[in-house]
Amino acid sequence: MWLDALYHSLNPVALQLGPLAIRWYGLAYFFGFVCAAVVIYRVARRWGVGLSVDQLTTVMIGIAFGVIIGARLFYVVFYGDGYYLANPLKILAFSEGGMSFHGGLAGAVVGGAIACRSIGYSIPTMCDLAVIGAPLGLFFGRCANFVNGELWGKPCDLPWGVMFDDAGGGAIYRHPSQFYEALLEGLVIFVVLLALSRRRPPRPQGTFLGVFLALYGVFRFAVEFVRLPDKQVGYLLGTDWLTMGQVLSVPLVIIGVMVVVLALRRNEPQRGLLSPAPAAEQE
């Protein structure tokens, strides 16, 4: 089990500086935002929807705050199972884990929209740009989940099975579902969206957001079949397969398809600033 050997050779703490511990999970967020920003900037230039470094920084700060706040709140509401009602101060204990992608997505839209309004940039175009870079953040985040030994899968006898430290149940090899999600939600979606983004003129507003939502929903729903649900929530409706992740992913597929259909019907071109930016903001 070569992947098991890799897992047990890794330390969740990337760097220890006295009392300060820099964890791979935190670095995953950092590199995810940086890589997404690079992708957004380069695609915006290719599309001719000018975006200065200052404007991009404003948007990324809004998205970052939205992701962190939204991901935490969704986890507390949908996965907390009453724990945070009894321990409200634990809501702020980010170091103990507990983030939801679905909440992070909602928070990113809200935070990014507020930032776009402040600089007068098209929100639909920014959504399309952002989702092209977002899968890279998902890739790093899922890899960090693997390093942390969390969100593991069901038992398996495959050559790449991993025996996670906190999974319980004795010496059982499990699906490294974190890597399945990293490949599907991260690399595959990124390659698809990047390929679609290369057409000139660019595809209509909303196309990329819709494709991202639909693909993520499908991939997340599928991987949940080999990934164990959060133990405090378990399976839903008395089944032995339906998880909260699947319930939250079905609307994404439906909304994604609807967004793509609407985008193709409206055929609105991608555009950047809705009004001329002040001279100081121009590159």
Distance between the termini: 52 Å
Mean pLDDT: 91
Shape: globular
Q: Give the percentage of residues in beta strands.
A: under 5%
Q: Describe the largest sheet.
A: 2 strands, antiparallel
The number of distinct β-strands equals 2
Unreliably modeled segments: 277-283
Tally of structural domains: 1
What is the topology, as strand order, of the major beta sheet? Answer: 1-2
Order of helices and strands: HEEHHHHHHHH
How many H/I helices? 9
What is the alpha-carbon Rg in Å? 20 Å
Helix/strand-derived category reads mainly alpha
Q: Specify the helix fraction band.
A: 55-70%
Can you put this structure into words, describing what you see?
- Helix 2 (24-47) runs antiparallel to helix 6 and helix 8 (207-223) packs antiparallel against helix 9 (244-266).
- This protein has one domain (2-273).
- The longest helix has 27 residues, at 53-79.
- The protein has 283 residues and is mostly helical.
- The chain has a two-stranded antiparallel sheet with strand order 1-2.
- Helices cover 59% and strands 3% of the residues.
